[in-house]
Design brief:
globular; nine-stranded mixed β-sheet; 17% helix; 4 helices; alpha/beta
Amino acid sequence: MNGYDFDLAGARLSALPTGALFWAAEGCLAVSDLHLGRSERYARRAGALLPPYEVEDTLARLDADIAACRPRTVICLGDSFDDAEAAALDERAALWLARMMAGRRWIWIAGNHDPGPVTFAGELRAELALGPLVFRHAAVRGASVRGGSVRGGSVRGAPGEVSGHFHPKVRIAGRGIPCFLVDRQRAILPAYGTYTGGLSAGDAAICGLMGSGALAILTGRTARPMPMPRGRNGQ
């Protein structure tokens, strides 16, 4: 799958070229910021017209990753839908998503775009503790590496954190490339959705979260690691 393997809190994870994260030992696939229905929301709220293909393209890539990894659990790390109304997918897309969900555990983590219950099956959580990792929408500054107590599926001070929210990108040759950001405590996933912008990996909001020696893992044909850029332009 041309992924890049790394360790986080004792868990062996693989950053896939598509922007998904696979934890083979747990049979767990995580994706973040699908933003399904973005073109519909733009048309509804701003009158702006975007080609209405983003739902199909995003679902097709997710379907391919599920077919390749065959996960027992899928975790969507928030902002799965562009807003509450965008969750009303058309019949074809809704059936496609339901087919992917069938026979596996499916976790919806609440995001800032979709904080309320979704209309699909699966579990809705604010965050999820699984083994040594906690999965949440946005990284928590100052999260401890000392471990902590689990209450109702949430965790305080988990050894490792997996999140999304920031849509990190690295600019190379004038093009913004979505990337994972990884250090000893956390992994921040790129946006998986087709119509999503991005924040420079060197932006202060991200740099303040990531420790020294952090990697940026570029998506594309293969997952390629490089030192995480520091500075405003992410270069």
